[in-house]
């Protein structure tokens, strides 16, 4: 599926509201402003200067303790979930410092309620003039469940059932106000037209919600929906509901196969395949010269303890990898957690004959071999995936914050623009327009829900 010349790469930024990478936060050029508003506003301005579509914050609702049955390695090494601020609050801070940058956050369908999610993202969409996005996840860690007065997670075979109904309720709530329901007529008086604000009266297996929402319909109609499902059920969920999907691959071939499959799934649900953007993870390491990059690479890798990477991977897979020998290969295991990460590390282990110790070092670093180098080399790697039909753009992570984003914007973005692969100005008025996605009319969600119902009936 080669890329036509007029299409441009979409760029999202994977930002962590905390240290994030066990080696990156220790790197001398990293800044430790994780609890300061100015830190996140600075990153937001950098990304907007680089014309990124959006900044995305994943979220974790517990300090992971899957590895060795303890959170010691997470806290000690500053790994993935050692510190995470509430991302919606952080995005509100970033919204105040920008005008165009999209603002995306995870909210779990396992532990939140549809009303609070619908109101939170509708509010962010209004206050940012149409820049909000919600990353829909189904939580899988019992450590998270225990923080929400539950002994364990929703059973694996039920998580997406709950998520499907959750999405339906949220869309109903966003649609409970018609687009022209707010009147603001001081003379009549008529603040909002009662005939255009409707109860939803949803009664289902998981939720009973009367509505209406107490926030007007969002400027984008619906905030942009992100998803990262990699299991068969997760892919089908994304193909129906998502506007963009965030995935992780270890090779061009696996990325291209996924891209073709997910577009076919979207088409089978009656959607235009181009209405679902595929953004694989990419962590470039760039410098002005090859010698500078090689020194950065050496220094960053030396700062990663293998236990830190394995602790994060254990969280992602929901498997305690400390049960296996460090100097043996990752065994074939049944993974209750994130299937995409398992496929990624399984491919790398088999191809490169990695031991768990080596895998832990690599997973703690997590930047790609063909994206390490000078700006032209990094741009070559991005162009190959984009032109070759493996993606619609990329979810860019920084090996260290905020300098990794600053290097990318300063060095790689101009090279992509020179090649005609990337925008030179923001063309849209909101996030949907910048992603080249249509604004959904009231009730547009029903077609996606119907696709699920017809498949369930079959």
From TrEMBL:
Residues 36-389 form the Luciferase-like domain. The keyword Isomerase does not apply. Keywords: Flavoprotein, FMN, Monooxygenase, Oxidoreductase. GO terms for molecular function: oxidoreductase activity. InterPro entries: Diverse_substr_monoxygenases, Luciferase-like_dom, Luciferase-like_sf, NTA_MOA. The keyword Flavoprotein applies. It holds the Pfam family Bac_luciferase. Its EC number is 1.-.-.-. Transmembrane segments: none annotated. Belongs to the NtaA/SnaA/DszA monooxygenase family. NCBIfam families: FMN_nitrolo (TIGR03860). This is LLM class flavin-dependent oxidoreductase. It comes from Variovorax ureilyticus.
